[in-house]
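ARCHIVE CARD
SHELF: 3
SLOT: left
DATA:
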Amino acid sequence: MNARWWLTALLGLNAAWVTDLFVLGHELSAPAGPLTALGRLTGLYGALALVLQLVLISRLPWLESRLGLDRLTLWHRWTGFWVLWLVVAHVVFITLGYASQDGSPVLAEVGTLVFHTDDVLIATIAFVLLLAVAATSARVARRRLRYESWHLVHLLAYLAVVLGFLHQVTVGQDFTGSPIGRVYWWSLYGLALGLIAVSRIGLPLVRNLRHRLRVESVIRESPDVVSVVITGRALDALPARAGQFFLWRFLTPGHWHEAHPYSLSAMPDGRSLRITVKALGDGSAWLQTVPPGTRVLAEGPYGAFTARRRTRRRVLLIAGGVGVTPVRALLEEFAREHDDIALIYRANTAENAVLADELRRLASLCGARMFLVLGPSTAVGRFGPVLGARHLHAMVPDVRERDVYVCGPPGMTDAVRRTLAELGVPAGQCHTERFAFAA
């Protein structure tokens, strides 16, 4: 059973347990109206969804290496919407239910609940914090905020989790009336927060203390692209694979607090790690002048865009833009295994084709077929759109018999996936990495 089915099965099982605990607590408590009961149930489901969010973003190595951090992050985002709507429903139904029982106006009942009911005030604070996190996570707001500002606000979600749990401990029927419920919820929250503590704090700390990474050299690949070579101790013990990326912090004045996700642009060899970065703005342009000897903190490796996902000996690699960096590393790994490889590299101009010379050299060494496809996104070739079904089939006629790895901008990645589906390539043979996340 794969990781996705494990997650689904565990979620279904926990949802059944939560429902059972609700029914037991509802029977043991004083009679409540249907609105109050519905409010309690949506609150419990909201708490369960919040725990799932924590697990999805815990970066647990076993889970992340099989699903990929980009997919887990997407699921985390959608789970966040469920958390928000379930908590909103909890607030609305509980307020309406108690107002109906007390025969009081809704606004008056809000004041009574918030200021005169045990620990509802801290639950209200948790609710406001969740709203703030949700508002700043909306796409429009996210584009206007610096990553560091967004991340700082996002950390408030952990405070909301703690405050919400304290509210649940005090007034939740699962806690006040059920020893089994107390054990269940303490264990569930403890496990989720423990995973975060180990995977997000403990493991990176141990690895950085052990490997002591430093910048060895900065190599200019083009006027706006550099490769940064990073060395350290015992790198052969670092479980990094071609196609993966790290969250990098370069400890220089003014930038030590910034985390940048960059893919490895060469297969790890146990002696050094290499990333290749294009100056896309202030966040990456300064790396062109980072001095050798600079200490580096790295969190990872992350990503499921690796040879582990391969199902066939024949491979097609498709790269677009700077998304070529993990593809270049994968080509090196597949070349050493003497696989049947085809490579398509999509770039606007020859000058934008980063690492093209390295790709040609590797392709020549292993006998891979390489196609450099140049032109704007609207370019049309002899067989139609340059990454359309006819054109792709003309370049790689046996594409249905290959595992296909695609990495590039989201628009290109989605277009290629549609093309592969049109050509009849099974979904299990299509492996993608959304470089917008790793860039």
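SLOT: right
DATA:
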Amino acid sequence: MTTEVATPHGPARITRHDAEGEARAVLLLGHGAGGGVGAPDLLATAGTAVAAGLHVVLVEQPYRVAGRRAPAPAAQLDAAWLAVVEHVRAELPLPLLFGGRSSGARVACRTATEGGAVGVLCLAFPVHPPGRPEKDRLPELAAPTVPVLVVQGRTDPFGRPEPAPGREVVLLRGDHSLKSDTPGLRAAVADWLTSHFGALTPAR
């Protein structure tokens, strides 16, 4: 089910995939800067979450809906994301997990506290621009105060974060696309969801 959601920066688009059986939470997933919600790692993660008893909402930022390839500034991305969060929370009164790949993972981290996320799932978090390790975004990754999972390619030119208190990091073979080890990606996501959120009460 795909619908548009009004945000301060134009309409966003959401595609909802319902859990198999009773849902215990909702996972919102955002796309990367230059890609869409059809990225293989996003689809693999969505399928894994649905099978684990979560509704999944794939979120397309307004700039993508408008047909622009260049991403909007961070403040606009965050504001649009939070507008979607409020829409989803009104429709599905369940615990919310935030997630996304690359730029979408940054948005999820930056908004986790304000948006009331219970966990954050980062696919290919871009620690720094390729070849620019001095421009790191680790403060964004450290911002959430809830459990965080980072799934990263071992040869990702955007860097590899280290584990930290509350942050698990799973390294898979391959690069920033996370296409090389889909079974490993699914296993990492399933294990994390089960270990941290398996006790959430399903909706009745």
